[in-house]
């Protein structure tokens, strides 16, 4: 069985990865800065909501992202440099949102915590909306 704090902590790491990716993309691309700011805000706000759920189990909140997230950010920057444009960020951003939504849905399915499910029920539609925006941007690139 997966622990609630373990689920929450894994989700915090995924959200932190996304936040760091969006901050990097925001530095490189200002044409959609409002979208990046919204995505950063959603993630950071959710991390703040998840932290007490983790801490009440006596666990330490994992405020660092993952190694995979670091690699994704580095590869995106490299692709953007090689291609001479920011399209690479938007392609990677789509993948990131899809993976994050998958993680959110997994946590919702596995969780027995009404607190965590409430957070996720409010969060998932926001990610779905942003993913649709990203898909539209990608189709216009």
């Amino acid at each position: 069985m997966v622990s609630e704090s373990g689920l929450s902590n894994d989700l915090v790491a995924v959200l932190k990865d996304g936040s760091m990716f969006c901050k990097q993309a925001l530095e490189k691309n200002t044409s959609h800065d409002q979208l990046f700011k919204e995505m950063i805000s959603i993630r950071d706000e959710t991390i703040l909501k998840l932290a007490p759920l983790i801490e009440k189990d006596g666990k330490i909140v994992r405020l660092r992202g993952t190694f995979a997230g670091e690699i994704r950010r580095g590869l995106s920057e490299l692709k953007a440099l090689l291609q001479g444009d920011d399209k690479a960020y938007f392609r990677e951003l789509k993948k990131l949102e899809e993976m994050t939504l998958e993680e959110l849905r997994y946590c919702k399915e596995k969780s027995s915590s009404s607190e965590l499910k409430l957070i996720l029920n409010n969060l998932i539609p926001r990610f779905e909306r942003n993913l649709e925006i990203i898909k539209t941007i990608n189709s216009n690139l």
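The chain has one domain: 4-139. The chain is about 80% helix and 0% strand.
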